[in-house]
Design goal:
Elements: E1 2-5, H1 15-33, H2 44-47, H3 54-70, E2 73-77, H4 84-94, E3 107-111, H5 117-127, E4 132-137, H6 144-167, E5 170-174, H7 180-188, E6 191-194, H8 208-216, H9 221-234, H10 244-257, E7 262-267, H11 273-287, E8 295-300, H12 309-314, E9 319-328, H13 353-370, E10 375-382, H14 385-406, H15 417-426, H16 433-442
Parallel strand pairs: 2-3, 2-4, 4-5, 5-6, 7-8, 7-9, 9-10
Antiparallel strand pairs: 1-10
Helix pairs in contact: 1-10, 1-14, 3-8, 4-8, 4-11, 9-14, 10-14, 11-14, 15-16
Bound molecules: 5-phosphoarabinonic acid.
5-phosphoarabinonic acid binds next to loops.
Amino acid sequence: MIKLNDNYVKSFIEDKALAAIAEEIAAADVQLRAKSGPGSDFLGWLDLPVNYDREEFARIQAAAKKIKSSCDILIVIGIGGSYLGARAAIEFIKSPIYNNLKKDTPDIYFAGNNISAAAISELISICEGRDICINVISKSGTTTEPAIAFRIFRELLEKKYGAEGARERIFITTDRTKGTLKAFADKNGYETFVVPDDIGGRYSVLTAVGLLPIAAAGIDISAMMEGAANARKAYTSADLSKNDCYKYAALRNLLYRSGKAIEILVGYDPCTLMLCEWWKQLYGESEGKDNKGIYPASVIFSTDLHSLGQYIQEGERILFETVLDIKDSGVNIDIPFDSANVDGLNFLAGKPLCEVNRAAMQATLLAHNDGGVPNIVLEIEDRTAASFGYLVYFFELACAISGYTLGVNPFDQPGVEAYKKNMFALLGKPGYEAEREVLLGRIQ
Ligand code: PA5
């Protein structure tokens, strides 16, 4: 469950403004549910928690078991929506230092989200002497970054295990029928999983895209789907007083209209870092278009209180924050007593760290409010798989409603193509000759 605490945002928003936007939110709800809004071919995520392919789900669990028993390292190759959700889940539920934990599941590394020779060669050296599996994830099957990484790691696997052995270690998640990757997988006999046609990359974490790597990390994906199903059930009313998900969409739109163009998602635990990255893609790609959109940023406190904290407190007043308040972090440590008390910290002796972290959060909420920064607080029960599933659905649904309220199509990403075209032209891809000439002339 998620509870929206609006105590730190109320004073920035008039009651009548909330009442006025309620009608727009209700209209967005109608558009979404009637599938009459822009991008309505991409609403598969809406019912996914209760309407998913059970046969494929069982195959995902079987493949995760095979991966766990046959490798020390799983390399997940994908970019954007094809990797952020899985990484967010593993770090949120298990740990941001999952690979360093004592465990009976493989280390998981993410590749194909950059073109850095250093990053790839470091990963190759980590793989030396260890058993490897690969999960390549690309809906289109044509994205350059993961395609390059796949080429490199496939060669490594084939050298190590032979083509036959590599076949057992390569898992492909892509379109059901279309694309180069699907054709290549079928030709080579790799096991494949589906990115449904009606679910875009950034809404796909609860499909095989996220579920296979998440299951390989030993996370209960059934509980995750149940959590998402609970959220789906919880957010059916268009009445803002009964729907915290829609209220979040309403508040952020109101703040945007009052000049708060930047939303900072705030975590108080490093386990939320990649969740913030996933959220940034979800909101950035969904809303940043037609010269509109809230710019999604993120911070992890206390870390960033000692870097960006200064700007948030006293910089340009164009910010609002959305705080992830995890009620139960699952572990605790008490601050030790020290008879010498050189650091003067004995007033904290015996106090659980989570209480100190909570005090840091409350102190920051008040300080930032005093500095003119509205804060929406999302209270999250814990770090379980069920809570993660719930959170994913909450943010996806809020994003769709928010995007429609903003007046954009929250399910396309036309702007992502611009750099791709230029890169193909500069690299001399056949068919891009004319563009190449123009671009070379512009490069200084
Ligand atoms: O949300 C999206 O659609 C994008 O971020 C894609 O996930 C990303 O561009 C990767 O695309 P693909 O899965 O086709 O390789």
